[in-house]
Task: structure prediction
Amino acid sequence: MNRKIAVVGAGNVGASCAMYLAEANLADVAMVDIIEGLPQGKGLDLSQAGPVRGYNAMIDGSNDMAAVKGADIVVMTAGLARKPGMTREDLLTKNAEIVGGVAKEIKKHAPKAYVIVVSNPLDLMTYHMMKVTGFPKERVIGQAGVLDSTRFRTFVAMELGVAMADVQAMVLGGHGDTMVPLSRYTTVAGIPIGELIPKERIKAIEERTANGGGEIVKLLKTGSAYYAPAAATVQMVRAILNDEKRLLPCSCYLTGEYGIEDMYIGVPCILGAKGVEKILELKLNKAELTSLQKSAATYKEHMKIMGY
Result:
């Protein structure tokens, strides 16, 4: 394969990304991690699954960031995982150090790459990645709303007992407790869920979606979600590599859209070969817009901690 994806971090999210990327036959994969032997072992294991699973992608592992050289897209998953009782914001200082260091290496070894950030706190780390690399805002995107919308779709499908593929949803805002699920834009085979689910149940589903990551952290007790985050990330990779022009909610850099400026936050965008090709401004009602702006405002103090 001529195309290459670099995955920084060979933990559960990174390894799952590598597996999904290989099974989609999208590109060869280079996994990088600071733990000696971890990316090499997982890469070799995944490569040996190829003959059975029917993929030709090769997965190599390395402890050297130089391995990202030539990557079309770099997926940033490295960082501390959330533990029970820990908010995404608790991770800020330590993960900012990790992301900042990786950003410098990406700038050095893969200056033309697109970067998809998965590390938490997601929106803040995406902003940090863009600032440290100096890459154009269109080339640095956070994986947020794709995952949150997928969770919303799952819970709606479970509520109604329908096929998950028939549910379409849109979740905006920060990747955390302040996210903004847009039930008005959520449908089942084109039918608004307001016609299918009582208001009180929709509210409960919205709340479960907002706490979706925390619910899994509590259940696992020793880590956080990785299958769904990896699947959502690969959807974004596919959209860019194949120039699919997908309309997806991603963490994008805003320059006044929705009344928000100089910040990454989850908004609907068209994702294609040029990265974020367009940001769509939906006609939000007053409550939705207020919630979105409030979601963004929660990050202002955290950005100051990071020196912005």
Notes: The mean pLDDT is 94. The longest strand covers residues 261-272. The chain has two domains: 4-142, 145-305. The longest helix spans residues 92-109.
